[in-house]
Amino acid sequence: MPFRIAVIPGDGIGPEVIAQGMRVLNAVTADSGSALEFVNYDLGAERYLRTGEILPDAVFSELRASDAIYLGAVGDPRVDNPQYAAGLLLRLRFELDLWVNLRPSRLLAPGLTPLRDAESIDLIVVRENTEGAYVGIGGQFKRGTADEIAIQEDINTRKGVERIQRYAFELAGQRHKAGHRGRLTMVDKSNALYHAHDLWQRVFVSERERFPEIEAEHLFVDAAAMQLVKDPGRFDVVVTTNMFGDILSDLASELVGGLGQAPSANINPQTRRGLFEPVHGSAPKHAGKGIANPVGAILAGAMMLRYLGDAVGADQIEAAVMASARERRTTRDLGGSLTTTAAADAILNALAMREFKSSSAS
Ligand code: NAD
Ligand code: IPM
Ligand code: MN
């Protein structure tokens, strides 16, 4: 039985990068033996503008029944409904209870970091994905008047905070075994948000006791942003809230070559459901020009493949991406001069030639 992958190309550059991701996934799985069946869903701004539908319940049920969701991007300047992204992307994260958002940042090739002295950067942001300021609890009062009040609550539950921190401690342990530093950094703002993030602090103390072998530290989010730029090599696993994870993962992406190459996985380790997408958005100013970097989508495809059990295929994609990046056979944002399709061709070529076999050892 092939894995049934629900594909939501979405808006802006989403369809362009997802098309390349599917080409790469098809090529790799033809070899590795895992079979993927892609089912396309025309959710997104076009459909919303045409029909008023964001995510019909019947479609949601089909997405829930799929083995994984592969998504491009959501966001279109023509849509003036502020709840559009919440109705599609956030609804999937919340209602499928995809409580872990994994956002790795690995320097694909030397010279791709804007930092002066960084030699190796290889960290992963573990973003809480179902709580925080994102849940939509709040409201507006006296809207549009001088007395207006706007409230958006920051929700932190013991269950939610505990499960994400525990996941991050376990991941740090696994990474340590795999040869990484294995250090965990918990990031919050408990000096100012002394109700909500005091919970993060207390959970951190108790989880730390459960994992005495893990090197663990705490940073306030402002200092974490500073340290990411000053000394990114000190980070391995960073666990943080929904909102801080959103911000720090864009920052971390830029340290290793830019948003265009950054992948992410939204997962529920219990149900094994997952939604895989690049970290970037729909980049409207680049849409339709054939210049968007497909690497974020392609590496998100590799994360999906790994999650579905095909580690060999995932390793091959990652190695082929690195081989192409080393030679700057990339789009402009990674220092090359290729179009979206040509950048994916280079990766497909590296895969076909198995170029990475010799070069990945160096
Ligand atoms: P964005 O991530 O779309 O783009 C920011 C900038 O990053 C772009 O202008 C571009 O210079 C660069 N960039 C991003 N992806 C790139 C790629 N693949 N190749 C080359 N360069 C790339 O962020 P934004 O401009 O703040 O948001 C645009 C829209 O996307 C908004 O509607 C926003 O809500 C939405 N958005 C969606 C997601 C998502 O679907 N997961 C994520 C972020 C933003
Ligand atoms: C992301 C995006 C989303 C988020 C937006 C589109 C709601 O920025 O996936 O990083 O903030 O989670
Ligand atoms: Mn974001």
Q: What's the CATH superfamily of the largest domain, by name?
A: Isopropylmalate Dehydrogenase
**Mean pLDDT across all amino acids:** 96
| Bound molecule types | nicotinamide-adenine-dinucleotide, 3-isopropylmalic acid, manganese (II) ion
Described by the principal axes of the CA atoms, the overall outline is globular
Instruction: Give the helix level as a range of percent.
Output: 40-55%
CATH fold-level name of the largest domain: Isopropylmalate Dehydrogenase
Class of secondary structure makeup: alpha/beta
CATH class of the largest domain: Alpha Beta
Gap from first CA to last CA: 38 Å
Radius of gyration, in Å, reads: 20 Å
Instruction: Work out the count of structural domains.
Output: 2
Q: Provide the low-confidence segments as ranges.
A: 357-362
Number of helices: 12
CATH architecture of the largest domain: 3-Layer(aba) Sandwich
**Looking across the biggest beta sheet, what order are the strands in?**
2-1-3-12-11-4-5-10-8-9
Q: What is the strand tally?
A: 12
Strand composition percent: 15-25%
Taking the sheet with the most strands, its summary is: 10 strands, mixed
SSE pattern, N- to C-terminal: EHEHHEHEEEEHEHEHEHEEHHHH
Brief rundown of the structure:
The chain is an alpha/beta fold and 362 residues long. The protein has twelve helices and twelve strands. The longest helix is centred in the middle third of the chain and has 20 residues.
Describe it.
The protein is built from twelve helices and twelve strands. It is α/β, with parallel strands linked by helices. The radius of gyration is 20 Å and the shape is globular. Strand 8 (184-188), helix 6 (196-210) and strand 9 form a beta-alpha-beta unit. Helix 5 packs across helix 6 and helix 10 (311-326) crosses helix 11. The strands form two sheets. It has a ten-stranded mixed β-sheet with strand order 2-1-3-12-11-4-5-10-8-9, sandwiched between helices. Strands 6-7 form a two-stranded antiparallel ribbon. The two termini are 38 Å apart. 42% of the residues lie in helices and 18% in strands. The chain folds into two domains: 1-98 and 267-362, 3-Layer(aba) Sandwich (Isopropylmalate Dehydrogenase), CATH 3.40.718.10; 113-255, 3-Layer(aba) Sandwich (Isopropylmalate Dehydrogenase), CATH 3.40.718.10. It binds nicotinamide-adenine-dinucleotide, 3-isopropylmalic acid and manganese (II) ion. Manganese (II) ion (MN) binds next to helix 8.
